[in-house]
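Forwarding these from the shared drive since the link keeps breaking.
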Amino acid sequence: MSISATDLISVTDLGEGVLRLELQDPSTRNSLSMAMLDLLAVKLEEVAANSQCKVVLLSAAGPVFCAGHNLKEVQGNLGDQAAQLALFNKCSQVMQQLVHLPQPVIASVQGVATAAGCQLVASCDLAVAEESARFATPGVNIGLFCSTPMVALTRNVSRKAAMEMLLTGEMISAARALEIGLINRVATEGQQDEVALELARLIASKSAKTLAIGKEAFYKQLEMPLAEAYDYTSEVMAENLTSLDAREGISAFVEKRKPQWKNA
Protein backbone atom coordinates (compact mmCIF):
# COMPACT_ATOMS: atom_id res chain seq x y z
CA MET A 1 0.00 0.00 0.00
CA SER A 2 1.42 3.38 -0.99
CA ILE A 3 1.92 6.08 1.63
CA SER A 4 0.19 9.43 1.16
CA ALA A 5 2.47 12.44 0.94
CA THR A 6 1.18 13.84 4.23
CA ASP A 7 2.14 10.59 6.02
CA LEU A 8 5.77 10.58 4.87
CA ILE A 9 7.00 12.41 7.98
CA SER A 10 5.76 12.18 11.55
CA VAL A 11 6.27 14.92 14.13
CA THR A 12 6.41 14.05 17.83
CA ASP A 13 6.94 16.29 20.84
CA LEU A 14 9.34 14.37 23.07
CA GLY A 15 9.15 16.95 25.85
CA GLU A 16 11.82 19.13 27.42
CA GLY A 17 12.08 21.19 24.24
CA VAL A 18 12.90 18.26 21.92
CA LEU A 19 10.90 17.61 18.75
CA ARG A 20 11.29 14.46 16.65
CA LEU A 21 10.93 14.49 12.87
CA GLU A 22 10.82 10.94 11.55
CA LEU A 23 10.97 9.85 7.91
CA GLN A 24 8.15 7.34 7.47
CA ASP A 25 8.66 5.61 4.13
CA PRO A 26 10.56 2.39 4.91
CA SER A 27 9.17 0.70 1.78
CA THR A 28 11.48 2.94 -0.29
CA ARG A 29 14.23 2.92 2.36
CA ASN A 30 13.10 6.44 3.28
CA SER A 31 14.26 7.77 -0.06
CA LEU A 32 14.31 11.51 -0.66
CA SER A 33 11.64 11.62 -3.32
CA MET A 34 10.27 14.98 -4.41
CA ALA A 35 7.22 14.35 -2.22
CA MET A 36 9.42 13.59 0.79
CA LEU A 37 11.56 16.68 0.19
CA ASP A 38 8.53 18.92 -0.30
CA LEU A 39 7.05 17.78 3.00
CA LEU A 40 10.37 17.99 4.84
CA ALA A 41 10.75 21.60 3.65
CA VAL A 42 7.31 22.43 5.07
CA LYS A 43 8.00 20.67 8.37
CA LEU A 44 11.31 22.51 8.79
CA GLU A 45 9.55 25.84 8.20
CA GLU A 46 7.08 24.92 10.94
CA VAL A 47 9.88 23.91 13.30
CA ALA A 48 11.74 27.17 12.69
CA ALA A 49 8.66 29.08 13.85
CA ASN A 50 8.06 26.84 16.88
CA SER A 51 9.26 28.74 19.94
CA GLN A 52 8.75 25.69 22.16
CA CYS A 53 11.23 23.59 20.19
CA LYS A 54 14.88 23.91 21.23
CA VAL A 55 16.40 20.83 19.56
CA VAL A 56 15.30 18.62 16.64
CA LEU A 57 15.88 14.87 16.54
CA LEU A 58 15.80 13.59 12.93
CA SER A 59 15.20 9.85 12.69
CA ALA A 60 13.75 7.32 10.24
CA ALA A 61 11.39 4.37 10.48
CA GLY A 62 12.43 0.88 9.49
CA PRO A 63 15.84 -0.76 9.09
CA VAL A 64 17.36 1.96 6.87
CA PHE A 65 17.89 5.62 7.72
CA CYS A 66 17.89 6.94 4.14
CA ALA A 67 19.05 5.43 0.85
CA GLY A 68 19.22 8.76 -0.98
CA HIS A 69 17.08 9.83 -3.90
CA ASN A 70 14.40 7.51 -5.23
CA LEU A 71 16.15 6.06 -8.28
CA LYS A 72 12.88 4.84 -9.79
CA GLU A 73 11.66 8.45 -9.73
CA VAL A 74 14.98 9.63 -11.18
CA GLN A 75 14.85 6.96 -13.90
CA GLY A 76 11.31 7.96 -14.82
CA ASN A 77 12.49 11.52 -15.49
CA LEU A 78 15.67 10.71 -17.39
CA GLY A 79 14.46 12.58 -20.45
CA ASP A 80 13.41 15.64 -18.50
CA GLN A 81 16.43 17.68 -17.39
CA ALA A 82 14.20 20.37 -15.89
CA ALA A 83 12.56 17.80 -13.60
CA GLN A 84 15.96 16.47 -12.54
CA LEU A 85 17.20 19.98 -11.79
CA ALA A 86 14.05 20.71 -9.78
CA LEU A 87 14.70 17.60 -7.67
CA PHE A 88 18.31 18.49 -6.92
CA ASN A 89 17.43 22.13 -6.26
CA LYS A 90 14.72 21.10 -3.81
CA CYS A 91 17.13 18.75 -2.06
CA SER A 92 19.74 21.51 -1.85
CA GLN A 93 17.10 23.85 -0.39
CA VAL A 94 16.21 21.35 2.33
CA MET A 95 19.85 20.75 3.24
CA GLN A 96 20.34 24.50 3.59
CA GLN A 97 17.18 24.75 5.68
CA LEU A 98 18.73 22.32 8.14
CA VAL A 99 21.84 24.49 8.39
CA HIS A 100 19.85 27.72 8.77
CA LEU A 101 17.29 26.30 11.21
CA PRO A 102 17.56 28.17 14.54
CA GLN A 103 17.46 24.88 16.46
CA PRO A 104 20.31 22.36 16.46
CA VAL A 105 19.44 19.16 14.55
CA ILE A 106 20.68 15.71 15.61
CA ALA A 107 20.46 12.79 13.17
CA SER A 108 19.78 9.35 14.68
CA VAL A 109 21.04 6.82 12.17
CA GLN A 110 20.41 3.11 11.76
CA GLY A 111 21.16 0.77 8.87
CA VAL A 112 22.60 2.75 6.00
CA ALA A 113 22.76 6.38 4.92
CA THR A 114 23.83 6.59 1.31
CA ALA A 115 24.14 9.29 -1.36
CA ALA A 116 21.62 12.04 -0.50
CA GLY A 117 20.95 10.12 2.72
CA CYS A 118 24.60 10.58 3.67
CA GLN A 119 24.20 14.22 2.62
CA LEU A 120 21.26 14.46 5.03
CA VAL A 121 23.41 13.19 7.92
CA ALA A 122 26.23 15.57 7.02
CA SER A 123 23.79 18.50 6.85
CA CYS A 124 22.58 17.92 10.42
CA ASP A 125 24.52 19.69 13.16
CA LEU A 126 25.22 16.46 15.05
CA ALA A 127 24.76 12.75 14.36
CA VAL A 128 24.55 9.55 16.39
CA ALA A 129 24.66 6.15 14.70
CA GLU A 130 24.30 2.57 15.85
CA GLU A 131 27.52 0.59 15.60
CA SER A 132 26.38 -1.44 12.57
CA ALA A 133 25.37 1.67 10.57
CA ARG A 134 27.17 2.29 7.29
CA PHE A 135 27.63 5.34 5.11
CA ALA A 136 28.47 5.87 1.45
CA THR A 137 28.35 8.26 -1.49
CA PRO A 138 28.05 5.50 -4.12
CA GLY A 139 26.94 7.52 -7.13
CA VAL A 140 30.21 6.83 -8.94
CA ASN A 141 29.20 3.16 -9.09
CA ILE A 142 26.19 3.95 -11.31
CA GLY A 143 27.80 6.70 -13.39
CA LEU A 144 26.26 9.55 -11.39
CA PHE A 145 28.88 11.30 -9.25
CA CYS A 146 27.49 12.42 -5.86
CA SER A 147 28.10 16.09 -6.61
CA THR A 148 25.42 17.61 -4.37
CA PRO A 149 26.10 15.24 -1.45
CA MET A 150 29.73 16.28 -1.87
CA VAL A 151 28.88 19.82 -0.72
CA ALA A 152 27.76 18.74 2.74
CA LEU A 153 30.35 15.97 2.99
CA THR A 154 33.33 18.23 2.27
CA ARG A 155 32.15 20.70 4.89
CA ASN A 156 32.24 18.02 7.57
CA VAL A 157 35.19 15.72 6.90
CA SER A 158 38.72 16.12 5.62
CA ARG A 159 39.31 16.50 1.88
CA LYS A 160 41.06 13.17 1.50
CA ALA A 161 38.41 11.29 3.49
CA ALA A 162 35.68 12.90 1.40
CA MET A 163 37.47 12.17 -1.88
CA GLU A 164 37.96 8.54 -0.91
CA MET A 165 34.24 8.15 -0.25
CA LEU A 166 33.29 9.98 -3.43
CA LEU A 167 35.78 8.23 -5.75
CA THR A 168 35.35 4.68 -4.46
CA GLY A 169 31.66 4.68 -3.59
CA GLU A 170 32.44 2.13 -0.88
CA MET A 171 30.58 1.81 2.40
CA ILE A 172 32.32 3.00 5.56
CA SER A 173 31.52 1.80 9.06
CA ALA A 174 30.12 3.87 11.90
CA ALA A 175 33.54 3.65 13.54
CA ARG A 176 35.18 5.12 10.44
CA ALA A 177 32.45 7.78 10.16
CA LEU A 178 33.22 8.76 13.76
CA GLU A 179 36.95 8.84 13.01
CA ILE A 180 36.57 11.24 10.07
CA GLY A 181 34.01 13.47 11.79
CA LEU A 182 30.88 12.55 9.84
CA ILE A 183 29.14 11.54 13.07
CA ASN A 184 29.63 12.44 16.74
CA ARG A 185 28.84 9.26 18.64
CA VAL A 186 28.46 5.52 18.04
CA ALA A 187 25.74 3.78 20.05
CA THR A 188 25.34 0.11 20.82
CA GLU A 189 23.02 -1.74 18.48
CA GLY A 190 19.50 -0.30 18.48
CA GLN A 191 20.32 2.35 21.08
CA GLN A 192 21.02 5.26 18.74
CA ASP A 193 17.68 6.96 19.47
CA GLU A 194 18.26 6.83 23.23
CA VAL A 195 21.79 8.22 22.92
CA ALA A 196 20.64 10.92 20.49
CA LEU A 197 17.74 11.87 22.78
CA GLU A 198 20.06 12.12 25.79
CA LEU A 199 22.30 14.44 23.78
CA ALA A 200 19.28 16.43 22.57
CA ARG A 201 17.99 16.93 26.11
CA LEU A 202 21.40 18.05 27.31
CA ILE A 203 21.49 20.71 24.60
CA ALA A 204 17.84 21.63 25.17
CA SER A 205 18.68 22.46 28.79
CA LYS A 206 20.50 25.56 27.49
CA SER A 207 18.99 28.88 26.45
CA ALA A 208 17.19 28.67 23.10
CA LYS A 209 18.27 32.22 22.34
CA THR A 210 21.92 31.37 22.95
CA LEU A 211 21.71 28.17 20.89
CA ALA A 212 20.26 30.06 17.92
CA ILE A 213 22.89 32.80 18.14
CA GLY A 214 25.68 30.24 18.36
CA LYS A 215 24.48 28.02 15.53
CA GLU A 216 24.09 30.95 13.13
CA ALA A 217 27.52 32.33 14.02
CA PHE A 218 29.16 28.91 13.69
CA TYR A 219 28.17 28.47 10.05
CA LYS A 220 28.73 32.10 9.06
CA GLN A 221 32.26 32.32 10.43
CA LEU A 222 33.31 29.08 8.72
CA GLU A 223 33.23 30.76 5.34
CA MET A 224 35.16 33.88 6.44
CA PRO A 225 38.88 34.69 6.41
CA LEU A 226 40.42 34.51 9.91
CA ALA A 227 40.47 38.24 10.70
CA GLU A 228 36.94 38.75 9.36
CA ALA A 229 35.71 35.79 11.40
CA TYR A 230 37.12 37.27 14.60
CA ASP A 231 35.61 40.68 13.84
CA TYR A 232 32.23 39.09 13.16
CA THR A 233 32.21 36.82 16.23
CA SER A 234 33.36 39.67 18.48
CA GLU A 235 30.28 41.62 17.38
CA VAL A 236 28.12 38.54 17.94
CA MET A 237 29.43 38.09 21.49
CA ALA A 238 28.97 41.76 22.34
CA GLU A 239 25.40 41.63 21.10
CA ASN A 240 24.82 38.29 22.84
CA LEU A 241 25.73 39.95 26.14
CA THR A 242 22.75 42.28 25.78
CA SER A 243 20.34 39.33 25.89
CA LEU A 244 18.34 38.53 29.02
CA ASP A 245 19.66 34.97 29.12
CA ALA A 246 23.32 36.06 29.00
CA ARG A 247 22.69 38.37 31.95
CA GLU A 248 20.80 35.63 33.80
CA GLY A 249 23.48 33.03 33.05
CA ILE A 250 26.31 35.21 34.32
CA SER A 251 24.35 36.16 37.45
CA ALA A 252 23.51 32.49 38.11
CA PHE A 253 27.17 31.50 37.74
CA VAL A 254 28.34 34.21 40.14
CA GLU A 255 25.57 33.38 42.60
CA LYS A 256 26.22 29.63 42.28
CA ARG A 257 22.67 28.73 41.28
CA LYS A 258 20.93 27.15 38.30
CA PRO A 259 19.95 29.69 35.62
CA GLN A 260 16.30 30.28 34.83
CA TRP A 261 16.22 30.77 31.07
CA LYS A 262 13.73 33.12 29.48
CA ASN A 263 14.91 32.12 26.00
CA ALA A 264 15.30 35.78 25.18
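-- next protein --
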Amino acid sequence: MTDENQDALVLRQDQGHVARLILNSPANYNALSRAMIDSLSAALDDLAQSDMRVVIIAAQGKAFCAGHDLREFQAARGDDDGGRAAYETLFAQCAAMMQKLPALPQPVIAEVQGIATAAGCQLVASCDLAVAAQGVRFGVNGVNIGLFCSTPMVALSRAIPPRAAFELLVTGDFIDADRAQDLGLVNRVVAADVLTAETMALAQIIAAKLPAAIRMGKRAFHQQQGMSLADAYASTGPVICENLLRADTAEGIQAFLEKRKPDWD
Protein backbone atom coordinates (compact mmCIF):
# COMPACT_ATOMS: atom_id res chain seq x y z
CA MET A 1 0.00 0.00 0.00
CA THR A 2 1.23 3.48 -0.87
CA ASP A 3 -0.12 6.60 0.80
CA GLU A 4 -2.44 8.22 -1.75
CA ASN A 5 -1.90 11.73 -0.37
CA GLN A 6 1.57 12.55 -1.65
CA ASP A 7 1.39 15.95 0.08
CA ALA A 8 1.06 14.37 3.52
CA LEU A 9 3.84 15.18 5.98
CA VAL A 10 4.31 11.46 6.63
CA LEU A 11 3.82 8.96 3.83
CA ARG A 12 3.34 5.26 4.41
CA GLN A 13 4.38 2.44 2.12
CA ASP A 14 3.76 -1.21 3.04
CA GLN A 15 5.79 -4.04 1.58
CA GLY A 16 4.67 -7.41 2.87
CA HIS A 17 4.91 -7.27 6.66
CA VAL A 18 7.09 -4.13 6.66
CA ALA A 19 5.67 -0.60 6.96
CA ARG A 20 7.81 2.28 5.75
CA LEU A 21 7.03 5.75 7.13
CA ILE A 22 8.59 8.55 5.10
CA LEU A 23 9.07 12.08 6.45
CA ASN A 24 7.87 14.22 3.57
CA SER A 25 8.81 17.84 4.22
CA PRO A 26 12.11 18.23 2.36
CA ALA A 27 11.72 22.01 1.95
CA ASN A 28 12.37 22.52 5.67
CA TYR A 29 14.66 19.49 6.01
CA ASN A 30 11.90 17.38 7.57
CA ALA A 31 11.90 19.53 10.68
CA LEU A 32 9.89 18.28 13.63
CA SER A 33 7.28 21.00 13.48
CA ARG A 34 4.14 20.64 15.57
CA ALA A 35 2.36 19.35 12.46
CA MET A 36 5.12 16.83 11.69
CA ILE A 37 5.12 15.54 15.27
CA ASP A 38 1.34 15.13 15.17
CA SER A 39 1.49 13.33 11.81
CA LEU A 40 4.24 10.95 12.88
CA SER A 41 2.53 10.29 16.19
CA ALA A 42 -0.73 9.42 14.44
CA ALA A 43 1.07 7.07 12.04
CA LEU A 44 2.72 5.28 14.97
CA ASP A 45 -0.65 4.92 16.71
CA ASP A 46 -2.07 3.27 13.60
CA LEU A 47 0.86 0.87 13.40
CA ALA A 48 0.57 -0.06 17.06
CA GLN A 49 -2.84 -1.56 16.27
CA SER A 50 -1.75 -3.26 13.05
CA ASP A 51 -0.34 -6.69 12.22
CA MET A 52 2.75 -5.23 10.55
CA ARG A 53 5.96 -6.83 11.85
CA VAL A 54 8.63 -4.16 11.29
CA VAL A 55 8.55 -0.38 10.86
CA ILE A 56 11.08 1.72 8.94
CA ILE A 57 11.33 5.48 9.34
CA ALA A 58 12.87 7.12 6.27
CA ALA A 59 12.82 10.61 4.76
CA GLN A 60 12.60 12.51 1.50
CA GLY A 61 15.22 15.03 0.44
CA LYS A 62 18.74 15.87 1.51
CA ALA A 63 18.14 15.71 5.26
CA PHE A 64 16.76 12.93 7.40
CA CYS A 65 15.59 15.44 9.99
CA ALA A 66 17.06 18.79 11.01
CA GLY A 67 15.42 18.88 14.42
CA HIS A 68 12.71 21.26 15.56
CA ASP A 69 11.41 24.11 13.43
CA LEU A 70 13.34 27.20 14.59
CA ARG A 71 10.85 29.50 12.88
CA GLU A 72 8.13 28.10 15.12
CA PHE A 73 10.35 28.78 18.11
CA GLN A 74 10.79 32.40 17.13
CA ALA A 75 7.14 32.97 16.22
CA ALA A 76 6.05 31.79 19.68
CA ARG A 77 8.09 34.57 21.29
CA GLY A 78 5.30 36.94 20.23
CA ASP A 79 2.82 35.23 22.58
CA ASP A 80 1.79 37.02 25.77
CA ASP A 81 3.94 34.68 27.86
CA GLY A 82 6.96 34.95 25.57
CA GLY A 83 6.35 31.46 24.22
CA ARG A 84 6.50 29.46 27.44
CA ALA A 85 3.19 27.63 26.99
CA ALA A 86 3.92 26.90 23.32
CA TYR A 87 7.36 25.54 24.15
CA GLU A 88 6.07 23.38 27.01
CA THR A 89 3.33 21.94 24.79
CA LEU A 90 5.71 21.29 21.89
CA PHE A 91 8.29 19.44 23.95
CA ALA A 92 5.64 17.42 25.78
CA GLN A 93 4.15 16.36 22.42
CA CYS A 94 7.57 15.53 21.04
CA ALA A 95 8.55 13.52 24.13
CA ALA A 96 5.30 11.56 23.92
CA MET A 97 5.93 10.80 20.24
CA MET A 98 9.53 9.72 20.85
CA GLN A 99 8.42 7.38 23.62
CA LYS A 100 6.00 5.67 21.23
CA LEU A 101 8.96 4.30 19.26
CA PRO A 102 10.35 1.94 21.93
CA ALA A 103 6.79 1.23 23.07
CA LEU A 104 5.66 0.19 19.59
CA PRO A 105 5.17 -3.60 19.36
CA GLN A 106 7.24 -3.77 16.18
CA PRO A 107 10.99 -3.14 15.92
CA VAL A 108 11.63 0.28 14.38
CA ILE A 109 14.55 0.92 12.01
CA ALA A 110 15.75 4.41 11.12
CA GLU A 111 16.83 4.61 7.47
CA VAL A 112 19.13 7.65 7.52
CA GLN A 113 19.89 9.05 4.09
CA GLY A 114 20.89 12.58 5.15
CA ILE A 115 21.96 14.73 8.06
CA ALA A 116 20.25 14.18 11.42
CA THR A 117 20.62 17.05 13.85
CA ALA A 118 19.27 17.90 17.32
CA ALA A 119 15.77 16.36 17.60
CA GLY A 120 16.49 14.58 14.31
CA CYS A 121 19.39 12.82 16.01
CA GLN A 122 17.01 12.15 18.91
CA LEU A 123 14.65 10.47 16.45
CA VAL A 124 17.41 8.15 15.26
CA ALA A 125 18.45 7.35 18.83
CA SER A 126 14.84 6.61 19.77
CA CYS A 127 14.49 3.91 17.11
CA ASP A 128 15.47 0.33 17.93
CA LEU A 129 17.93 0.04 15.03
CA ALA A 130 19.47 2.37 12.46
CA VAL A 131 21.04 1.98 9.03
CA ALA A 132 22.88 5.01 7.65
CA ALA A 133 24.33 5.96 4.30
CA GLN A 134 28.05 6.57 4.06
CA GLY A 135 28.86 10.25 4.53
CA VAL A 136 25.78 11.05 6.64
CA ARG A 137 26.44 13.30 9.64
CA PHE A 138 24.87 13.36 13.09
CA GLY A 139 24.91 16.07 15.74
CA VAL A 140 23.14 17.61 18.71
CA ASN A 141 24.30 21.05 17.73
CA GLY A 142 21.79 23.31 19.45
CA VAL A 143 24.54 24.65 21.72
CA ASN A 144 25.99 26.40 18.66
CA ILE A 145 22.99 28.75 18.68
CA GLY A 146 22.76 28.97 22.46
CA LEU A 147 20.28 26.13 23.02
CA PHE A 148 21.48 23.04 24.87
CA CYS A 149 19.77 19.95 23.39
CA SER A 150 18.31 18.81 26.70
CA THR A 151 15.50 16.67 25.31
CA PRO A 152 17.55 15.07 22.51
CA MET A 153 20.07 14.29 25.25
CA VAL A 154 17.64 11.83 26.84
CA ALA A 155 17.55 9.46 23.88
CA LEU A 156 21.16 10.05 22.84
CA SER A 157 22.64 9.34 26.28
CA ARG A 158 20.75 6.05 26.32
CA ALA A 159 21.98 5.04 22.88
CA ILE A 160 25.70 5.84 23.14
CA PRO A 161 28.23 6.08 25.97
CA PRO A 162 27.41 9.02 28.28
CA ARG A 163 30.79 10.73 27.93
CA ALA A 164 30.56 10.62 24.15
CA ALA A 165 27.02 12.00 24.30
CA PHE A 166 28.07 14.83 26.61
CA GLU A 167 30.97 15.78 24.37
CA LEU A 168 28.63 16.11 21.40
CA LEU A 169 26.15 18.11 23.46
CA VAL A 170 28.65 20.64 24.78
CA THR A 171 30.75 21.06 21.64
CA GLY A 172 28.05 20.99 18.98
CA ASP A 173 30.42 18.91 16.86
CA PHE A 174 29.19 16.54 14.19
CA ILE A 175 30.18 12.93 13.70
CA ASP A 176 30.05 10.91 10.50
CA ALA A 177 28.24 7.64 10.00
CA ASP A 178 31.32 5.52 10.70
CA ARG A 179 31.89 7.23 14.04
CA ALA A 180 28.19 6.93 14.81
CA GLN A 181 28.48 3.20 14.20
CA ASP A 182 31.52 2.96 16.46
CA LEU A 183 29.54 4.64 19.25
CA GLY A 184 26.46 2.47 18.72
CA LEU A 185 24.11 5.14 17.37
CA VAL A 186 23.72 3.21 14.11
CA ASN A 187 23.99 -0.51 13.44
CA ARG A 188 25.11 -0.52 9.82
CA VAL A 189 26.70 1.92 7.37
CA VAL A 190 26.11 1.22 3.69
CA ALA A 191 26.59 2.90 0.33
CA ALA A 192 23.95 5.55 -0.33
CA ASP A 193 22.69 3.85 -3.49
CA VAL A 194 21.78 0.67 -1.60
CA LEU A 195 20.52 2.25 1.63
CA THR A 196 16.85 1.50 1.05
CA ALA A 197 17.54 -2.02 -0.19
CA GLU A 198 19.84 -2.83 2.74
CA THR A 199 17.40 -1.40 5.28
CA MET A 200 14.55 -3.39 3.76
CA ALA A 201 16.70 -6.53 3.76
CA LEU A 202 17.31 -6.12 7.50
CA ALA A 203 13.60 -5.51 8.05
CA GLN A 204 12.68 -8.64 6.09
CA ILE A 205 15.05 -10.77 8.17
CA ILE A 206 13.27 -9.60 11.33
CA ALA A 207 9.82 -9.91 9.75
CA ALA A 208 10.51 -13.58 8.98
CA LYS A 209 10.85 -14.41 12.68
CA LEU A 210 7.93 -15.45 14.88
CA PRO A 211 6.00 -12.18 15.40
CA ALA A 212 4.87 -13.05 18.93
CA ALA A 213 8.43 -13.74 20.03
CA ILE A 214 9.71 -10.47 18.56
CA ARG A 215 6.96 -8.46 20.23
CA MET A 216 7.48 -10.13 23.61
CA GLY A 217 11.21 -9.73 23.25
CA LYS A 218 11.14 -6.06 22.33
CA ARG A 219 8.89 -5.23 25.25
CA ALA A 220 11.11 -7.16 27.66
CA PHE A 221 14.27 -5.60 26.22
CA HIS A 222 13.12 -2.06 26.94
CA GLN A 223 11.59 -2.92 30.31
CA GLN A 224 14.78 -4.44 31.70
CA GLN A 225 17.02 -1.57 30.66
CA GLY A 226 17.91 0.53 33.66
CA MET A 227 17.00 -2.22 36.12
CA SER A 228 19.44 -3.76 38.52
CA LEU A 229 20.90 -7.10 37.44
CA ALA A 230 18.66 -9.02 39.84
CA ASP A 231 15.54 -7.12 38.84
CA ALA A 232 16.32 -7.60 35.15
CA TYR A 233 16.51 -11.38 35.57
CA ALA A 234 13.34 -11.34 37.66
CA SER A 235 11.60 -9.37 34.92
CA THR A 236 12.74 -11.46 31.96
CA GLY A 237 12.40 -14.94 33.49
CA PRO A 238 8.58 -14.99 33.25
CA VAL A 239 8.77 -13.59 29.70
CA ILE A 240 10.93 -16.42 28.36
CA CYS A 241 8.73 -18.96 30.16
CA GLU A 242 5.61 -17.53 28.52
CA ASN A 243 7.42 -17.58 25.20
CA LEU A 244 8.35 -21.26 25.64
CA LEU A 245 4.78 -22.19 26.49
CA ARG A 246 3.48 -20.96 23.14
CA ALA A 247 2.46 -23.63 20.63
CA ASP A 248 4.21 -21.79 17.80
CA THR A 249 7.44 -21.75 19.80
CA ALA A 250 7.10 -25.50 20.39
CA GLU A 251 6.74 -25.86 16.62
CA GLY A 252 9.85 -23.74 16.06
CA ILE A 253 11.94 -25.89 18.39
CA GLN A 254 10.63 -29.13 16.92
CA ALA A 255 11.33 -27.87 13.40
CA PHE A 256 14.91 -27.12 14.39
CA LEU A 257 15.35 -30.58 15.85
CA GLU A 258 13.90 -32.12 12.69
CA LYS A 259 16.01 -29.86 10.45
CA ARG A 260 13.07 -28.25 8.65
CA LYS A 261 11.43 -24.85 8.48
CA PRO A 262 8.80 -24.13 11.12
CA ASP A 263 5.18 -24.11 10.03
CA TRP A 264 4.18 -20.66 11.26
CA ASP A 265 1.87 -19.57 8.43
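The longest helix spans residues 84-103. DSSP finds eleven helices and ten strands in the chain.

- D.
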